[in-house]
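Appendix B. Raw example, untouched.
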Amino acid sequence: MSNPHTALSVNLNKVALVRNTRHLGIPSVMKAALVCLQAGAAGITVHPRPDERHIRADDVRELSALVTLWKGQGHAAEFNIEGNPFQNLMAFVEECKPDQATFVPDSEDQFTSDHGWALDMMGAADKARLKAAIDAAHAIGTRVSLFMDPIASLMPLAKALGADRVELYTESFAKAHGTISQPQAMKQYADACRAAVATGLEVNAGHDLNLENLSDFLIACPLVKEVSIGHALIGDALEMGYAATVQAYNHCIEVGHGPGCGHNHHH
């Protein structure tokens, strides 16, 4: 098994969403996490929203304990909590001390994340609040990733606030994939990724990545450290099962890092 240097973090929100439609605890979010980790997922991501419409507070705590136990057995794995640091996120970060906190500028009633931090439009007060949240996460040893649109000029601003990583919001890549706009989208993301790395940031990516577009995305952005995938992966898992699905996504990552892409391929 080769060791792809892009980690797959599985977002379990949609498992929780299905479970919450009844009071039976089925499907189990914990079982989903364990099977995904056993199948080779490098991490677990959750985005607990204030209305608890999918992931609930107890899920965050239980998953944090599960990932800690899994790491204690000698596995490399990470727990990533996403959310708005100005809403409910920081209480979870302080309690669970995850490996990574991904700060997303969601409004409370938002259907799903649909924009990154507009750091160029932010006032000084909001920037100071965001920096304070980054500092608070760092104080407990949690790495911070800022959810960002693929705009190269914003990357130095993310670095200036103290972020460790950015998560490139990949919806526009997914929309362009397979159309005449794909080369332009690949260039836009490649430029943003290079700009982030040049300023000293590491790069994650997520939103609407799937088995069809993931390899092409990584060909454009081979330095991406982690992809966080939820909706498409859980949809695939309904047909293939969690384990086969995680293996299929890891295979896409390997194909994206295949020979001839200008980086080291570890065997």
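End of appendix B.
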